[in-house]
# Entry
Amino acid sequence: MKKNDWNFATKVIHAGGEADKETGAIMPPIYQTSTYVQSSPGKHKGYEYTRSHNPTRSRLEENLAALENAKYALVSASGLSMIDLIMHSLPTGSNILCGDDVYGGTYRLFTTVFNKQHNYTFLDTTDLKSVEKHLKTKPELIWLETPTNPLLKISDIVAISKLAKKYKVKVVVDNTFMSPYFQNPLDLGADVVMHSMTKFINGHSDVVGGCMMTNNKSFYDKVWTLQNSIGPSQSPFDSWLVLRGIKTLAIRMEAHQKNAMKVAKFLETHSKVERVVYPGLKSHPQHRIAKKQMHGFGGMITFFLKGDIKKSKKFLEKVKLFALAESLGGVESLIEHPAIMTHASVPKDVRESIGLYDNLIRLSVGIEHVDDLIADLEKAFSFV
Ligand SMILES: *Cc1c(COP(=O)(O)O)cnc(C)c1O
# Structure
């Protein structure tokens, strides 16, 4: 059976996972080395310097490519450094379309670093008419995050990719929230998919990392050359940790989703909750598209507490099992307040124009026992 025919749960364990040729070690060695000995100047075994290539990282890249059904994968030191490399790959003065509810760090990178180099237009990418109107202006690229962070808005990847092809616009999807287990943008027509591996892919809150996958060789070559020239390569040890974490991606995602569905239903009927946003709920505005393009609904929930910022703060102080922290996608449950924490770099008027209010709370539902998670939330509600 060829690697590409394997089911996902097999790929996460075996793609890039052959036993070590020298020793038979079943786990990949951590090649903790900066350089490689050459037998004659320029004569080597494919490895010259770890910024350029490292065997542990190569194994992770092989694994990741298989998970997104891609020919090429590139790993970098963080999700943002991968976004940075992709932006560097575009000609200066490029026009870029970007969803209006992207990760706060992406927004900051685009509006305070690359705004001197490219022109960004932010738009609601769930509105296909507006997307087409903007694509007609022939930008270089459209940047989609779906579901978005934190409003969990879902954009139709198939429809947008079709339109983008018509106008020769490249489509990049930040697939961090779904992980390759629940959504495969390349299969839906996107040109490039990227992830913050810090989140679900590694899943154990002990690594920062990023990656991108594509079938376009010249794009891959360009981004690899930029990574080698600029330098944000991931350390061998961090790549090894991701290789270890990724083995359980399939079962973790199933567990995240199972718990999240129960927590979302609990919140939806709670008297102190104004509104719940979870792609798996029928009440989600794009539930139909979610069912069509995702294989599941993930572990992220956003809800609006009845009341003001004071009540939100109190609630966040009173949860115990849900740790109050930025980030997401780890085995442990996290809770955060985007307006004060992850999205503080987005101006208040911009935040509120897209519905990111001060009573919005984001949950990353972990894989603990769901009864304990619900009990923790119930207790915190009793204080507000
Ligand atoms: C965290 C995150 C990023 C940035 O990744 P880092 O690994 O923190 O640099 C990008 N996009 C999304 C959706 C994220 O959640």
